[in-house]
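Entry 12.
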Amino acid sequence: MFYEYDEKTNRLIIKDWGKLLIADGFDSSLFNKKHQDCPICGAVKGFRAGYIGNDSWRWVCKGCTSSKYESAYEFMCKHYGFTSATQLFKHIYQQTLSNEVAVKKALAAPKRVEENSAERIEKSLRATAFLWGKSRQVRENDPVWKYLNRRVPGLTQIPSDIHYTKAQYWETDSSDRPQHLADYDAMVLRGYSPQGQLVQMHTTYLTEDGQKAPVENVKKTRPGCGFGSYAFRIGMPRDGVLGLSEGIETALAASVLYDMTVWPCHSSSVLQNFEVPDDMKTEIRQIIIFADNDRSKIRDGVRNTGLLAANALAKRLRMQGYRVRIMMTAKVGDFNDHLNNVASVPF
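Predicted 3D structure (tokens):
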């Protein structure tokens, strides 16, 4: 049974929230860990959900959760507009568990068995090290060179921390089994934890002529790295100043515009969690955050996810004694959009 009632404490205990959601009427295909439209805010390809570990069901949405993972409890509250546990459990008692057909369907749903989290992280890190080991620095006119020179006007030299490689492209099928679909040229970067450990790898899949590959997810990071704070270190800080951004091309554009080192952090949630590297805490004195000026739909309107993440990070870093400045473009977009707009204006 995916729930039980504790008579001593007079409490309903949910043992498997994923099955509870099926009993509540949600289709299990919604929780296959694939990017899809959010059932709450409608964010296109912005929602993903599924089991993490053996029992923990989590979901994330670039709109509803600002790209942070939340629990099934929070998912149901946001979906139904509940503001308290009392409202939610009243719904579970009176609606979810009273539907015998739906409960039987949930009980019949197969239990997803996941790898041990430590084993999954170790496997991911081994794959990261292997992929980087067979990569090389970017050369003129190779696919990565063509891609970045078209995407980032004024980028005269590709940083040595950005590499080219051949990479396999995998996706899961309808049964959640991994399938190798093709091999592509790719741009890869290493992500490091604050302690200097290699913990993540970014891959952008490309065609031979430097276009984005015709795949569902052109840009990927390694799954299950086990770290919520990391940065793709492109160069070293100069004169005690370090720039931060979400995307790689945003970081490169900001470095072109302001002639400084900028590290991309992959997403708003990882950016918000950024920690100054242990071996640079005395060297770095000022941090400039190049925030995305974006708009994410939420139930009651829109949210500037990039600015919210930048403000949260700035507040924490200032409390640690760093000087922090937030920069954002006047128009919706990021600094790479801004650079391309400036480059396209005739003189």
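Annotation: The chain has three domains: 3-108, 116-225, 228-347. The first helix runs from residue 17 to 23.
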